[in-house]
Amino acid sequence: MEERRGKILVVDDEGPIRTVISHKLQHEGYECVLAASGEEALEKICAHDFDLVLLDIRMPGMSGIEALPQMTFEDPDICVVMSTAVDDTQTTVQAMNLGAYDYVLKPFDLDDLATRVETALERRKVESEKRARAARHYSALVENIADAVFEFKRGVVAWCNTRAEEMLGCGQGELINKEVEAILPGVARQIESAEQSEGRQRGTTTVEKKDGSVLHVEYSASPIDGKETIEVVVVLRDITERKKAEEQLQTAEERYRTIFENSAVAITMADENERIVLWNKFAEDVLGMSASDLNMRPVSSLYPDEEWAKIRAQNVRQKGMQNHIETKMIKKNQEIVDVSLSVSVLKGPDGNVTGSIAVISDIGEFKRLQEERDQLLRAARS
């Protein structure tokens, strides 16, 4: 007799069949345990570890089809081969869909049965190795990412990675078996939605660390169908620093907007095609134009042709900046005004021009006073 090759549960309501099968499989080197009903089989699966179950489909009380999903739930790795005296294709397909590896027809060819058992166990071994390898890869992945990962079963923590401990400032013993409300109250409703098979839930929230400090996080809660038990994987990404940067940026933008809108000089921004896309209120006042007049207006249309030619000759795009260009601009009423112009060219990372900013000062009064001064000086000399 060969060395024991695996432990098999033989389930059949007919005693002689159980005896014949167990004698054959024991002769092939397997350890056999017998059960006369689906109910007895489930009791033994709960009490023992089996490599394979040979399960009769038609039995009084709980049928093999009824027992099969409960067996695979108790032991997802178990290998089940169905047996039946009726060649019923529909029932066979149902059994395979419920997780059976194979089926055999009665009366048995015992040699064929032994071959099918061996093949099924080989297949189980290969799949178990694949699952173990996948589990190792998964473990390596989640332990080396910068995000916190939690697994919840029925709303309590079943597992978490090291980053989760670091993020919340807790040891794993303080997190395992804790209810979601106790550690991630901001994600509790999303986990419940995921458990109700509403798909992945995403968003942002805050979590409180053990020391009382608060973190801003992005979360993703994804359901994993575990038959009667729904598992939810929750991934948390710490975005506290990003949140602070966003708040600082928003504050800076608000300050910029305040300065921009309350500046005593006209400011316009043009795009790469030299059309006005942004301006302040003072620009409207200087040019006597409304928002609709300025929006997407070509910059060149604001200057007399000869003045635009002079500005072009300054090669501002090549220089990147040009300060205090004295020129003239055309108001909406066609009045020509004297202005001092400072231009800054905006460029992207590739060095291409993406737009420009112009600061415009009305120097009409200054020019008038300068002219009066010159007239007085000439009169004094004469």
What characteristics describe this protein?
Beta-Lactamase; 382 residues; Rossmann fold
Structural description of this entry:
- There is one protein chain.
- With 382 residues, the chain is an alpha/beta fold.
- The chain folds into three domains: 7-136, Response regulator (Rossmann fold, 3-Layer(aba) Sandwich); 146-238, 2-Layer Sandwich (Beta-Lactamase), CATH 3.30.450.20; 263-369, PAS domain (Beta-Lactamase), CATH 3.30.450.20.
- Helices cover 43% and strands 29% of the residues.
- It has 15 helices and 15 strands.
- The chain has helices at 15-27, 38-47, 64-74, 89-97, 110-144, 162-168, 172-175, 180-183, 188-195, 240-262, 281-287, 291-294, 305-313, 316-319, 364-381, and strands at 7-11, 31-35, 52-56, 79-84, 102-105, 148-153, 156-160, 201-208, 214-226, 229-238, 266-271, 276-279, 321-330, 336-347, 353-362.
- Strands 2-1-3-4-5 form a five-stranded parallel sheet, sandwiched between helices.
- Strand 9 (214-226) and strand 10 form a beta hairpin.
- The chain is rod-shaped and about 140 Å long.
- The chain starts with 6 loop residues before the first strand and ends with a helix.
- The model has no long low-confidence stretch (mean pLDDT 87).
